[in-house]
Amino acid sequence: MKTLKSAIRLFKHNFSALFFFELLYKLISLAIITPLLYMIVNYSIKMADIKYLSSDNVLLYFTSPPTYVLLFVLLVVITIFLLVDASALIYAMEASRKEEKTNPLSMLIKGFFNSLRIINPKNMGAIVYMLFVLPFTYSVMLSGSLVGLRLPEFLNKLINIYEKNISQILIIYFLLCFLAMFLVFSLNYFTNFKMSYARSVSLSIKSVKKNFIKVFVGVVVVNLVVTAMLILLQGTITTALVSFISKFINSKKMEFVLDISIQVIFFIVYVSVSLVSTPFVYSYICACFYEIESDVYEEHEKKRKHKKRKERTPEELARINKISFVVVLVAVLVINIIYVFLNATNRVSLNVAYSTWVDITAHRGDSANAPENTMAAIIMANENGADIIEIDVRQTKDGEYVLVHDENLKRTTGVDKRVGTVDYEYIATLDAGSYFSEEFAGEKIPTLEEVIAYAVEEDIFLNIELKPAKTDQNYEPGIVEIIEAYDYVDNCVVASISYDAISNVKKLNPDITTAYIMTMAFGEFENLEYADIFSIKHTFIDSTMVNTIHKNGKKIYAWTVNRETDIKDLLLLDVDSIITDDPYKTKDIMYNANDTLMSDWIERFMKEY
Q: Staple partner for 18: which of 44, 279, 307, 381, CB 3.0–4.6 Å?
């Protein structure tokens, strides 16, 4: 309790300086780190001697030595940014201990010059501190960032393949985080006493050894309390907001107003709490440090007594505060300039209206309302106004082409067998509808020929995704033959995540439109010879990419998009098609999008900040 009271006193004494420094520094960091990340990734792609990054060549990328060199450079840069923050906070706590006032500018200068000391090889160990003490000092920021984290599909696949190994790595990481608590005071020594980082680590280990339980439990509890406060605040305010709005608004408008309001509330609460959470955690660490190391601290202070610090006059403090205000003002202006730049480069759009002509593709049929890749889903997608219907095609052991997404039949039929290991006669007996709901019990897996015959009759445009497997025989030629036999070349696009597959299709019939499916999109891929369309994970799409692809006379599809905000963002980006699980809902959002243009723009503006 005594330590907590000391932490609160340290925190309160320079609260305004801490708050405005965190606000200023996070804005600067966001403005620099994001473009730097893209720059290093793009440069690493070129160094790996590949033109673009996709699931096809990701292993080549990660086996290239320059990739790891550049990722290490990125790690060092991020560490420096984090060290500036941590060093500035420790400097402010030191001022509070002496009952002196500080300001954001002084904190930034002190933090910046202290972080540069990491460039000295003797101090590179500070990277270890930032890597393993990070969860204990940036808990709120990390929890808020990870909630909405969406990994590229290739990473999800790697995680599924190496799930056991990754679990072991995570266990080892958290064990190292536990052990890293012995380093928790190292940054205090490193910052306040200007020691080498190796010497700082040695002293920190000695100090924490005697008080490990107190320090560890205290820091963990403080982090849990701060994170719990964030969740509690968001939940309480959201509940109150829903109760208040529901009294005045009803029907469909209420859903929209609530959605926008809740996102705004979450944004405000998250930003507010994150601006004070890290300073408060460091105030507790510093309070522990001052309490445990009081004797060593006093001895070191005596050695520095001959270097008396000149007290600043009120006039000097006022002048420093004015300079700080100007710096903050300039920083805000810079952020606004960056926002304008993002708009100019189409990272953020200020378009005056949403496009309402984008083709809506039903992903595996109307898979939100019927079992995927079945005739029921295809018929429902057609009835619900889908412009294009996307299907997945695999080959059975006896050479029949059937509509199945996964290589294994278990998820949709309950049978643990691979498509390529069984004949069509067996596949035709399976129930592909019960997993979705009893309403569709007995729904069968259709063949490609059945679907194309229905598409010809109903004048439906199909997006035929090829799913080649090792068991296939004469896979692409057989599909091309079916398309040609039904005179369906002009009414479909043949897509695949395998560039070789669409290359083979294009060589067999140059008139067939092909689409290259990409789980990520970095590098120069727009001129690929055999791709007429690029079907890209929507999180990687920006307007620069759209414009570049269009300038090369090709189209861009975005997959798989179900959230209203994502759909609207893509409408502004002018993509050619949005692939979605619910075509009716997506069309409704598209046709009514311009009714909420202004509030959407405000929400988008806030997200950028």
A: 279
> Known catalytic residue: 363?
yes
Q: Return the number of other C-beta atoms located less than 10 Å from residue 55's C-beta.
A: 19
* Three-state SS sequence of 135-170: HHHCHHHHHHHHHCCCCCHHHHHHHHHCHHHHHHHH
C-alpha 512: how far from chain center: 35
Stretch (H or E) spanning 578: strand 577-580
The confidence score (pLDDT) of residue 117 equals: 83
What does the DSSP assignment read for 238-280?
HHHHHHHHHTT--HHHHHHHHHHHHHHHHHHHHHHHHHHHHHH
Spatial neighbors of 298 by CB under 8 A, at least 6 apart, are none
CA 537 to centroid of chain Cα atoms: 13
Distances in Å between the Cα of 154 and the Cα atoms of 54, 459, 465, 497, 556 are: 8, 35, 17, 11, 20
Distance CA 416, CA 420 (A): 12
User: Would you say the C-alpha torsion 409, 413, 415, 421 has a positive or negative sign?
Assistant: negative
pLDDT at 145: 45
- Which residue in the list 13, 300, 405, 550 is annotated as catalytic? 405
Give the residues of the chain that fall short of pLDDT 50.
Answer: 144-151, 153-154, 306-308, 344-352, 608-609
> Going by DSSP bridges, is the β-strand pair 359-363/577-580 parallel, antiparallel, or unpaired?
parallel
Neighbour count for residue 243 (Cβ, 10 Å): 9
Q: How many CA atoms lie within 13 A of 242 on its CB side?
A: 9
**Shortest CA distance to 521 belongs to which of 39, 54, 38?**
54
Give the span between the Cα atoms of 255 and 278, in whole angstroms. 34
CB 25 within 8 A of CB 84: yes
Could you report the per-residue pLDDT of 232-249, keeping only the tens digit for each?
Answer: 876 787 777 667 766 665
Look at residues 575, 381, 362 and name the one whose alpha carbon lies nearest to residue 566: 575
Nearest Cα to 130, choosing from 170, 92, 91, 74?
Answer: 74
pTM over 0.70: no
**HSE (side-chain half, CA atoms, 13 Å) at 563:** 8
Q: Burial level of 306, CB count in 10 A (0-12/13-18/19+)?
A: exposed
pLDDT tens track for 256-288: 556 666 666 777 777 777 788 888 888 988 888
The Cα 21–Cα 339 span in angstroms is 21
- Those residues whose C-beta lies under 8 Å from the C-beta of residue 576, and which sit 6 or more positions away, are 358, 359, 533, 555, 556, 557
pLDDT at 347: 46
Greatest pairwise CA separation for the chain in angstroms: 94
Closest CA to 492 of 533, 551, 520, 529: 533
Name the active-site residue from 13, 363, 538, 550: 363
Report CA-CA distances (Å) from 88 to 4, 32, 111, 414.
21, 18, 4, 57
Give, for 564, the enclosing helix (H) or strand (E): helix 564-573
Q: 75: part of which helix (H) or strand (E)?
A: helix 65-97
Q: What angle do CA 329, 335, 336 make, to 5 degrees?
A: 90
Rounded distance between C-alpha atoms, residue 130 and residue 137, angstroms: 9
